[in-house]
Amino acid sequence: MDMQKMNKDDLLALKAAAEQALADYRSRGLQLNMARGKPCTEQLDLCASIHETLTKFKDEDGADVRNYGNLVGTPECRRLFGQILGVDPSQVLVGGSSSLNMMHFTVGNAYVRGVLDGMTPWHKLDKVKFLCPSPGYDRHFAVTNYFNIENVPVPMLADGPDMDAIEKLVASDPAVKGVWVVPKYSNPSGITFSDEVVRRFAALNPAAEDFRIFWDNAYAVHDLYAEEENRDHLLNIYDELKKNGKEDMVYMFASTSKVTMATGGVGAMAMSPRNFEWIKKNLGVATIGFDRVNQLRHARYIPDMQALDRVMQGHAAILRPKFETVLSSLERELADLNCCSWSKPRGGYFVSFFAPKGTAKRIVALCKEAGVVLTGAGATYPYGNDPDDSNIRIAPSFPPLSELEQAMEVFCWSVKLAAAEKALS
Amino acid sequence: MDMQKMNKDDLLALKAAAEQALADYRSRGLQLNMARGKPCTEQLDLCASIHETLTKFKDEDGADVRNYGNLVGTPECRRLFGQILGVDPSQVLVGGSSSLNMMHFTVGNAYVRGVLDGMTPWHKLDKVKFLCPSPGYDRHFAVTNYFNIENVPVPMLADGPDMDAIEKLVASDPAVKGVWVVPKYSNPSGITFSDEVVRRFAALNPAAEDFRIFWDNAYAVHDLYAEEENRDHLLNIYDELKKNGKEDMVYMFASTSKVTMATGGVGAMAMSPRNFEWIKKNLGVATIGFDRVNQLRHARYIPDMQALDRVMQGHAAILRPKFETVLSSLERELADLNCCSWSKPRGGYFVSFFAPKGTAKRIVALCKEAGVVLTGAGATYPYGNDPDDSNIRIAPSFPPLSELEQAMEVFCWSVKLAAAEKALS
Lengths: 425, 425
Fold this sequence. Notes:
By secondary structure, chain A is an alpha/beta fold. Chain A has helices at residues 8-27, 41-46, 75-85, 99-112, 138-146, 163-172, 195-202, 237-243, 273-286, 292-301, 305-334, 360-369, 401-424, and strands at 32-34, 92-94, 129-134, 150-157, 160-161, 176-181, 212-216, 250-255, 267-271, 341-342, 351-354, 372-374, 391-394.
């Protein structure tokens, strides 16, 4: 029944039923976690044999990957990430196990030394701002916050960020130095940027010459479905930028954190030749080199895009039923109430849920009391401040399917209770 | 013959002989490299089976190391580094493959956020200085240089840095915020700090409350000799600092880069509980976590200090003849000239050579022409500026023994030629 049409008695009855159900769950002592996009054990076991693949240590160029040398990465791994990101291998810098750490370095390098040689380091400026399409990835926002940068929220729409807002802010304010995006199977909204959105990004006219798009393509190959027509397709932003002579405007990132292992994977970044030389020069101060042993281990295990697709289909086979469980629970329990909305992603790691305004914090708290941990309400907005107190990020990957069903029952009852309380207040 | 006693004819004869010898080497097209402290292939093969040891992925605490969680490191690895550095495992933060990268992060964190919560970030100060006992490690100096910090050279003496100079500078100048040291088998001097030097470090009275000692114990277990009496022993600075209630004053670093693999090893840092909490909090912005798969791989392969000592004796068996070759070449070819001096280290990776004043650059250039690459002259001083143009760092580890003998012949002839030229000029 549509909540808008419920009278007070209906609402009190819904509230009582939800309280009873949640009390029951509380007594069971559940311990379920849907807080972070963590792979489950079955996913991690998919690539267990990767640890046995490395018995010879020379890369294609004949270099012993166990020894110092070659800051930019093994050629095999550069080629693989070049294919994932759609750029020439020469533009790829393969790093350690964390692409987030490369983003942190890149923002830090702009802060300490400047975006390119001769540009003003950001620490010397009174004000630096980053645009943060929201809901977005909390760890992105934390990086810019660390470097004393103001995070400016921008709305996310159905096909990407609100480009009208972004174009205006970027063109009018020289303090706007960057924008964080996850362009494919976005965290948390699950959407992939439309071709038009990508083209508008590639045509931005920033007031700041050192404006950069942080294009975190974390879920570039993370489809839930095998059929081409059920996969999202992201336009290659680098090609579009190049057409406009603006290829310095982007840093692209990817990793195997959700391909092989969350901790023991390989991260990479790709960029224009000019950006590459400057990042390489400064990165060479921060480390002698990354773990090329692990890079080669990965390249041997995943020699090409076909091998990569096979691994990703293994992940999809595990994740698809979990996403379907979340979506069918939401549909079954909440669609009729007509007071919430949620994304129906075809890839990535998250379902983005919008509860009635002013109830997200309460829902997360109710879930926690009943033993289900969610990402903190508001975490998907800069400074943890969701102005509507509405968005909740659901991460279905980690719990086993049976637990996930229980967790979703707890979640849906919590939504009903919070919605009823709100309507009655 | 003592060079001081040579007449012009003697010098011209020496010069002619050296020119002839070097011309001969140039015609051979040698390609030998003694520039960096790179392990040789035999050393890297010592631990080849480390890649086969990891088949189970739960650490002592039952956590799957392949998944997110636990920023500070696997318990096994924290214990191992606790033993290497002589501190409680709770004080150890195990990182990725590069301890230099942890130093870079630590200086950067002071620069961006401050040394502890509430302290002024260094980027807000007009002037920040680091003391750089020299000759020292060029990559240390590069890190502080990157963060706009002035590197101030301080002399190295036979038992450690000139502590009179350090005490005075630290106590009198609040802009002095840190000091770089390699306290055991120092890079490049090969000496180990005496107990008195360590105690004087631990008793420093800095004018700056956020002064820190960067104690890079890179060669903590890197003895060339098996017998206890032929090994250097470094006093535990943390214990000494604690006696003085100054335990916040140090960050300690170590790694397995010269234990297992130069690139695929594990780095770690250790510090006081107060420093630990602050570093942990800020490091959590820069990464979700380090490669705990590789940490566990290492802890399984090297479960205790006995296993570590066995590996290190394998390295010593390979390195000892190389150091002996370098030292016997120098002794045989140059001792009589009485115009040079060099270190005779009992561990580590370097021999530090002092040529006649004003000849180091010339010697390095002569070697290069004859196919032998050395660390650039001056690199061991801040800003590459050796005021005496005298120090050269010799790294014997990488070349095979047969090539090393040739390389040392080239080196000694280059010294003779440069010394003769200088005396004749």
